[in-house]
Amino acid sequence: MGTIDKSKHAVLLEHVYYGQGCTNVLKDVSLAIPHGQWVCIAGRNGAGKSTLIRLLNGLLLMSRGRILIDGLEQSGRTLGDIRRHIGMVFANPDDQFVGLTVEDDIAFGLENLCLSREEMQHRIQTYAERLDIVHLLNRHPATLSGGQKQRSAIAAVLAMEPSILVLDEAASMLDEKAKNELLDSMRAMHADGRYTLISITHDVEEMAEADRLIVLDGGMVTADGSPRELLLREDLLQRCRLKAPFALQLCRELKERGIDIGELVREKEVQEALWLYHSKRYLTATGTGG
Amino acid sequence: MVISFEEVSYRYRDRGMTPILGLDGLNLELEEGRMIAVLGAPGSGKSTMLQHMNGLMRADEGLVRILDFNLESGDSRKIPPKLRQRVGLVFQYPEQQLFEDTVEKDLLFGPLNFGWSEAEAAEAVRRAAFFVGLDEALLAQSPFKLSSGQMRKAAVAAVLAADPDILALDEPTASLDPASREDLMQRLHGLTKAEGKTVIVVTHRLEELVSYADDFVVIKGGRVIFQGTARELVHKQEVLEEAGLMAPSSVRIAGTLAAQLGIETPEMLPDAAALAAWYAGLLESQS
C-alpha cells in the first residue's frame, strides 16, 4: 500500500464509511477501479449500492475515508472538478430531462461548461450520432420511447465528456427491447476504451458481460472479481438474491442429461457451444468427420 | 366475470390541445381467482386501464364492471362506497403513494380508514409486512429513507394491509432484486390459489411472470391485441414485438437450435429444464 500510482485509477476508495447516527450504510469500503474497466455492482435491496455511487461525485458526502477520482482527492475544493469527470444516469430518465427538446437538453449541460457555440454544436452532433438519436434531436422528451429517452439521457451526459460513466439501475424501468438497446450502447462505450463504466444492476445477463463484479452486502464488499467465476457461486447468488443466468441454468440442466458443454454464463457462448456439440456428433455419427 | 370492460374509451384532455386516446373501445373479461399479466409498450394504455378498476378514472364511453359494481360512463362521478376497499391499486412510483412520516403509519392508513379497530389494523400491518418480506425494523423509519426496493415493498404492503379482493399492481418489480421479484410473484400467485383473490400485474418483463400468471393480456393503442396463456404468447413473435417484449431466452435458443437442425421450433414451457430435456431427446432420436 502507499505505493500505488493514484493517477492510474479512475476510482480509488480507501476505508470509506457513510452513515447517519450510529447506523452505517457503508462500512470500511476500499476499492480501486482502473481506467476503462466495466464494473457491475450487485447486492440485495438496501445493500448500499446507490449510496456508494452517490459518494463518488459528492451527491452524498462520506463520513470517513478517502475518495480519489482520476487522481483527484475529493474535498470541498475539488468537488466541482470531480463532477466533470463523472457522468450519472439514473433509473428514471424523466427525472433527468430539463430541456424542451432533446437537443436543448444536451445543450443545457454544455452551457454550464461555458463552451463556445461551435464546440457545443460539434459535441451535440457527435454524441447524437454515437447514440443514434440524430433523428430525435427536435423531439420533446415526453414523446420518446423509454429506450430512446435513456439513450438521449446518456448522450447528454457523454457530451460533457466525462471519463467515468455511472449507471444506477439505468435499465430497470425499460422494456426488454429498450434494455437490449442500452446494453448495446454500453458495449460500444466499453469497446471505445475511453470510459470507465460503473453500473448498478440486478441483471445477471449484464453482469456476465462486464469485466468485473463487485458484490455489496450490509454495506461491505463481500465479493470482487470476474463475473464468469462469481456467477458460478450459488452461495453468493443467494446472498445478493440473484438467480443464475439462464445460460448457466441451461448448462447445468444439460449436464444432468449427459450433455457437458461446461459452465457458461452468456447466451451467445451457449449457442455456439451447442452448435459445436451437435455438429461434432453429427460428423462422428455419419463418419464424415475426422 | 370478476372484471369486465365493454367498449371502454377514455381520452386524456389535460395533455395539450388535442385529447390523447388512452383507451379505445377496449373489451376485456377477467375471471376471479386468477393471476393476470398485463403487457404492452409504454403509452399503450396499461396504466389507464388499471386506474379504471377502482374508479380513479371513469370511462368516457362504455361500461366497466368490477365485482358487483357497475361503473357506467357519464355516471354521476360518485364512486360506490366499498369499491376502493375491495380493489387495491399499487402505483408505478411508490414515492407517489407513500406519504406518512413512518412506514407503519402508511401501512395502517388503509385499514384504519376502512374502519378497522386498532388491534385489527396492527395485526393486518404485521401480516402485510411479513408477506412482502419487509423487515419489521423498517416500520419505524420514514418511507422516504428506504432504498428504492424497500420502498416498493412498503407500497405493496400498504395496499395489501386493507385485504382487498382484487389487487392490481403497476410495474411492482422495477427496482426489486431478482429473488425479491420472484418471491413477490410467488406470494401473489399464492393469494389467488389459497384465498381466491384476483391479482393483476402490469409488467414489461415477460420472463418473471411466465411461470406464475394464468392469463396474459397484451394491450396496444388502448385495445386488447392478445389474451391467452404464456405458452401461446411466447411463440407469437409479432405480438411480442408490438409490446416491446423479447421472447424468453429459452424460446430464442430453442428457435436457433431448431433452425440449425432443420426442424420446427417446438412449443414448450419456457424454462431451462424443458429446453434441456427437448434437446437431449432430440439428440437421442437422431443417433
TrEMBL record, chain B:
Domain ABC transporter: 3-246
Phylogenetic lineage: Bacteria, Bacillati, Bacillota, Bacilli, Bacillales
GO MF annotations in UniProt: ATP binding; ATP hydrolysis activity; ATPase-coupled transmembrane transporter activity; cobalt ion transmembrane transporter activity
SUPFAM superfamilies: P-loop containing nucleoside triphosphate hydrolases (SSF52540)
Family: Belongs to the ABC transporter superfamily.
Entries under Pfam families matching the protein: ABC_tran
InterPro entries assigned to the protein according to its UniProt record, in alphabetical order: AAA+_ATPase (IPR003593), ABC_transporter-like_ATP-bd (IPR003439), ABC_transporter-like_CS (IPR017871), ABC_transpr_CbiO/EcfA_su (IPR015856), ECF_ABC_transporter_ATP-bd (IPR050095), P-loop_NTPase (IPR027417)
Keyword Nucleotide-binding in annotation: yes
The name this protein goes by in its record: ABC transporter ATP-binding protein
UniProt cross-references to CDD domains, sorted A to Z: ABC_cobalt_CbiO_domain1
Membrane topology: Peripheral membrane protein
UniProt keyword list: ATP-binding, Cell membrane, Membrane, Nucleotide-binding, Translocase, Transport
Compartment list: Cell membrane
